Every structure is written in C-alpha cells, then in structure tokens.
From TrEMBL, chain A:
The chain crosses the membrane at residues 28-45, 52-77, 83-101, 108-130, 136-155, 214-231, 261-279, 291-308, 315-335, 341-360. Keywords: Cell inner membrane, Cell membrane, Membrane, Sugar transport, Transmembrane, Transmembrane helix, Transport. InterPro entries: ABC_transp_permease (IPR001851). This is Xylose transport system permease protein XylH. CDD domains: TM_PBP1_transp_AraH_like. It is found in: Cell membrane. It comes from the Bacteria.
TrEMBL record, chain B:
Its EC number is 3.6.3.17. SUPFAM superfamilies: P-loop containing nucleoside triphosphate hydrolases (SSF52540). Keywords: ATP-binding, Hydrolase, Nucleotide-binding. The keyword Mitochondrion does not apply. The gene is rbsA_2. The keyword rRNA processing does not apply. GO terms for molecular function: ATP binding; ATP hydrolysis activity. This is Ribose import ATP-binding protein RbsA. It comes from the Bacteria. InterPro entries: AAA+_ATPase (IPR003593), ABC_carbohydrate_import_ATPase (IPR050107), ABC_transporter-like_ATP-bd (IPR003439), P-loop_NTPase (IPR027417). Coiled coil: none annotated. It is an enzyme of class 3 (hydrolase). Residues 6-246 form the ABC transporter domain. It comes from Pseudovibrio axinellae.
Length: 368, 259
C-alpha cells in the first residue's frame, strides 16, 4: 500500500498552517504569559534583572518550584492531584537531614534512603487513591497535614525540641556526589570566559557569576526528560489516556493503575529532589520547608496548560509556568512595586490560565 | 458452507431468578454481516456480553473455529479474535487519532531506556487504514474529539480490524447517528465484510439492518425467533417479530404509516 500517496493526494493537508498548529499546543498560554511578563519587566525593572546574574537570580527559585511543577503536571495529565508535595518536601528534608546528621550515613546512602522513602510515600498515596476510588484531592489533602505534622514531630525528636536540624553542610563537605546536588556547575567554564573577557568580572578578575546553580540544570534536564516521555514514549501515551478517560484506557489494554501509581511515586521523588537540593544549599532543614509549594506547583502546571480534569497538558508548559513565577517573585524587587503584589498576581494568573485552557481545549476537540 | 468463526449453541443466562437468555443459538460466518435485532430489554446486551467474555453463560456452548471454548474474561475473547466496538467506543477525545488507534498496542523502536514510540510508523499506518475505510484524515495527529460520531465509529472499527479481529461485534453503531453518517458506517461494515471478517450488527433499526445484513436473527424476551437469510424475509416481517406482532400492527394502523 502506498501510504505516502494517501498523504500527498489529500488536498486538505495544506489548510493546516503553522499558526493553527501552534494554537493547539498546550504550552501556548505559558509562552504568551512569559512574553507578557518579560515585556512588563523590560519596561519597569532595573536592566540588571536581565543580566546573566539577574537571570540566574530568578531562575533559581523558578527551578526549585519547577521541579515540583513538572511532577505535578505529569500527575495532573494522568488525572490525579497531589496536594501533599509541599509537605513531602519538608518530610523528605527531615529524612535526608536525619540520615546525614543523626544516623551519620554517607551522602550517597542518605540520598538513596530519601528517594526510597519518598517513592514509598508516593506509593501509599497512589494505592489509597486507586484502591478506594476516593478523589486524590481528599486523600492527598490528608497527607498534606499528616506529613507536615510528622516533619514537626520528627524534627523535634531528632534535635531534642527544635524545629530546625542543622549541621548538614559539615557532613556533606568533601563528597564528590555533593557537587551534583549543591553549588554551581560549569565553574571552570565561567572562569575561562572571564579570563577571555566574555563575561562581567569583579576587579580581582573573578567572574561575577561563577557557574550555573545545579538546580537550574536539574530543572532543565527534568523538563526535557518529562517532555520526551510524554510525547515520544509509549508510557506517555498511557499517561494521557489514563487521565483522559480511565475506563476507555483500561478497555484498550492500558495498565491504568500502574501508570497512576508510578506518577504518584514520581511526584514524590520530585519533592525529594527539591528537598535534597534546598537542604544541601541551606545546610539545615526545618519544618516550614516547601510550605504551600503544592499550590504553586499546581498553578504553574495549570499556567503551563494542564487541564484540571486531566488528559491534557505539557511538561514544557510547566517549565515556562515556573519561570513566570520566578520572574515575578524576584522581578518585583528590581522595580518600585510593592513585593506583596506577588500574591495578587498569582491568583489572577491562575484564573486567566484556566479560562485560556478551556478555550484551547475547545479548539483542540473542535467543540462547537 | 465453511465452519462458522463463532457459533453459540443454546445459550442460557440467568441472573438470580431472572432468565435473561433462554436458549439462544447464533453463528457468524466469515465475511458476513449477521444482524441481531431486538427491542429494548430483549436480551441483546446480555447476549453480546456473553459472546465477548464479560458474562459466562449459565448453560450452552461456544465454539470458535469449530473448537469448544470457554471465555473467562473479555481478554480471552479478544485473544480468540472477537472484538467488540461498544457504544461508548473506548476512545479518548483529547488524544490524537493515531494515539487512540494504537492505544495499548503502541509500536516501539529501540530497546531499554531508549525505547520510543514509533510515531512515524503509527501515523502512516493510521492514515492508510483510515483511507481504506474511506476516511481521508487531514492530519493523523488531530484529536478524536474533532471527528464526527460516524468517523469515530470508523476509527474504532478500523482499529479492531487492524489488530486482528475475526469477529467484530458492533453494539448499535448507528443508533446515535444522522442519515449520512449512518450510511458511512454501513459502508464501512461492508468493507470489513469483504476482508473476510464476520460482523455482528446489533440494532433495533430494521432499515439499517436490511441495508447491509446477510442474515437476520431476532431476539425477543431472551429467545431467538429463528434466523432468516437475506431475501427470505421482509422489513415488515422483521419489525413484527421484534415487537411481538399484533399490538404494533394495530398501533401502526392508528398512526397511518410504518413505525
């Protein structure tokens, strides 16, 4: 059979322009939002914001949120929510801190233990949702409180009454694995660039920016891998199917339960990664870590084009959504605008994004 | 004549004290459209669920290619080549036609962590299979939600046939469609029949059945009232059999036309 002949003889193919193709991408809203926010700050903010140092300045919080948002986006596409990711950051931070400081495990072992605990907690969330058929909203809301409470109790037990566990930095020092989870990457490159006068330097000749913070690298990598999984792997198709219509998916032979289970575990592991990155950065962990991050992560995913009802969305969208967050959070300090406008912005952006997503969805499905 | 692909003999199905099927015999030959007609509550759904492995018959035998078989699950029936296209179609509107077509059977390339979904092949095959069914897709990655009801039905049928269905059970495929879309679906059934697939066409619309059917079986109150070949029976006779005759005839007289 001549499959190519079929395509080339269909005259209607030409009607699909690049623009209308782009209009159907879920990340369009986030890209438009990013452009708007960039234009806004280009006019109002100190130009330093868009220097290399300024860029890394807002990318760092964007990355910490973004790692969570990518997990949240995948889970939302799969048709479920996880409201416990913020508390999960605190809880896995405690596990990591306690493993390092209290149990004095080597760094690699502490990291493995942290991820294993996170995956197990994600599995518990997933199993309860799948087996009881309860909305994941309720189940993970329960875990939002349970994990936050456990973090407090655990921290007090580990420190003898304090809610902050210090001393992680001292334990980490000297381990080569630490370089993957803290500090900056590509430092030699930046020194080389400074020597050749390609980046801004201090008077001493040291570059003003001596590397890219590792969380930005993790964030970018994760966005790439998640996008590849969603769009180019069989599992990605299963994620969309599970969220789009779980009974239709299982009738077609998709292992819906397993897919959702893995997604809950992945989301929890994203929280664990953020915990490890931020705890190593700060050198300590505390009970407020990750506070309200679950909402910000979900908002970033929604801004990125994920539908609250599942079955549609994008990891790249969540990537841009998180950058918008970082830009506004940090960008406002480069302007004369009161920082607390951040919250107003957050709410309005969510509302706009949901409206926009509904419009896009209608376009995609051709609802008339 | 050759052996039927599927033959069901004296199927009975009881749900507690309710007798849903009271001795139904039915067979499907390769390359025929066998219409199963019946009014609501006649037992059509119970019967096709038995055929597709959802229910186990209380008594009676099922033969596939002349060999006796018992289906424990829909999976078993599917493996035996019996595919069912349900009214709800098992399709995901927000996903592309290609992704829906291949759902659960995705072709992959490479192996290990590098294994990826071979979308190029998937798209090409989908375009080709849909073209064979007479539907020219604008693009294989358009969402199923953009298709009309008849086109969705055709995607579901093309998918079942491509993945090796020998018997295709279509559960009221025309009930929710307009005139034009109905004729498209009937044309698709004709194409499928020509490939040698046996089609079981469930309907309560006699005219749709007469348009494509090779054989007709009427189900009434859990019993078959016999099977007729094309040309042996008129639409009016089928209608009477379905409705139990007399009352409908008198209603028809008072309405002054065909119901």
């Amino acid at each position: 059979m001549s499959d190519l002949a079929v395509e080339s003889t269909d005259e209607r193919v030409k009607n699909v322009s690049l623009i209308s193709r782009l209009m159907k991408r879920p990340e369009l809203g986030a890209l438009a939002g990013l452009a708007l926010v960039t234009i806004f700050f280009a006019f109002t903010a100190d130009p330093k914001m868009f220097s290399l140092a300024g860029f890394l300045n807002f990318m760092t919080p964007a990355s910490q949120l973004g790692i969570l948002a990518i997990g949240a986006a995948l889970l939302m596409i799969g048709g479920e929510f996880d409201l416990s990711v913020g508390s999960m950051v605190a809880f896995t931070g405690l596990i990591f801190g306690a493993a390092m400081v209290t149990f004095e495990l080597p760094l690699y072992a502490a990291i493995i233990v942290t991820f294993m605990v996170a995956a197990a907690m994600g599995a518990v969330n997933g199993q309860i949702v799948i087996r009881t058929g309860l909305p994941s909203f309720i189940v993970t809301l329960a875990f939002l409180f349970i994990l936050r409470g456990l973090s407090l109790v655990g921290l007090k037990a580990a420190t003898g009454g304090s809610t902050q566990l210090r001393g992680v930095r001292e334990k980490v020092e000297g381990s080569w694995i630490a370089d993957f989870f803290s500090g900056e990457a590509f430092t030699p490159l930046f020194y080389w660039l400074a020597e050749n006068g390609l980046v801004d330097t201090f008077k001493s000749g040291k570059p003003k920016v001596d590397g890219i913070p590792v969380e930005i690298i993790w964030f970018t990598l994760l966005a790439g891998v998640a996008t590849w999984i969603l769009l180019r792997s069989r599992f990605g198709s299963w994620i969309f199917a599970s969220g789009g219509d779980s009974s239709a998916a299982s009738n077609s032979g998709v292992p819906v339960r397993r897919v959702k289970m893995y997604l809950f575990m992945f989301t929890a592991c994203c929280a664990a990664l953020v915990a490890i990155l931020t705890v190593m950065d700060a050198g300590s962990t505390d009970a407020r870590r990750g506070f309200q991050k679950e909402f910000e992560a979900i908002i970033a995913a929604v801004i990125g084009g994920s539908l609250l009802t599942g079955g549609y969305g994008s990891a790249i969208g969540a990537f841009f959504g998180s950058i918008i967050f970082g830009m506004v959070l940090i960008g406002l300090s480069y302007t004369n605008i009161d920082q607390d406008w951040y919250l107003v912005f957050l709410g309005s952006m969510l509302l706009l994004a949901v409206l926009f997503n509904n419009m896009i969805r209608k376009r995609v499905t051709g609802e008339r | 004549m050759s052996t039927p692909i599927v033959e069901m003999k004296n199927i009975e199905k009881h749900f507690g004290s309710v007798i849903a099927l009271a001795g139904v015999s039915f067979s499907v030959m390769p390359g025929e459209v066998h219409c199963l007609l019946g009014d609501n509550g006649a037992g059509k759904s119970t019967f096709i669920k038995t055929m597709s492995g959802v229910h186990k018959p209380s008594t009676g035998e099922i033969f596939v290619d002349g060999k006796k078989q018992a289906f424990d699950s829909p999976r078993d029936a599917m493996n035996a080549g019996i595919a069912t296209v349900h009214q709800d179609l098992a399709m995901i509107p927000l996903m592309s036609i290609t992704r829906n077509f291949w759902l659960g059977h995705e072709p992959t390339k490479n192996f290990g962590p590098l294994k990826y979904y071979d979308l190029k092949k998937a798209n090409a095959v989908t375009m080709e299979e849909m073209a064979k069914m007479g539907i020219r897709l604008r693009e294989p990655d358009q969402a199923v939600g953009t298709l009309s009801g008849g086109e969705r039905q055709t995607v579901a049928i093309a998918r079942a046939v491509y993945f090796g269905a020998k018997v295709l059970i279509l559960d009221e495929p025309t009930s929710a469609l307009g005139v034009r879309q109905t004729s498209n679906v009937l044309a698709t059934m004709d194409k499928v029949r020509k490939k040698g697939v046996g089609v079981v066409f469930i309907s309560h619309n006699v005219r749709h059945a007469m348009a494509v059917g090779d054989r007709f079986t009427v189900l009434n109150r859990g019993k078959t009232l016999g099977t007729a070949k094309k040309g042996e029976i008129t639409a009016e006779e089928l209608q009477d059999l379905m409705a139990g005759g007399q009352e409908l005839a008198s209603l028809e007289a008072s309405l002054g036309g065909t119901v």
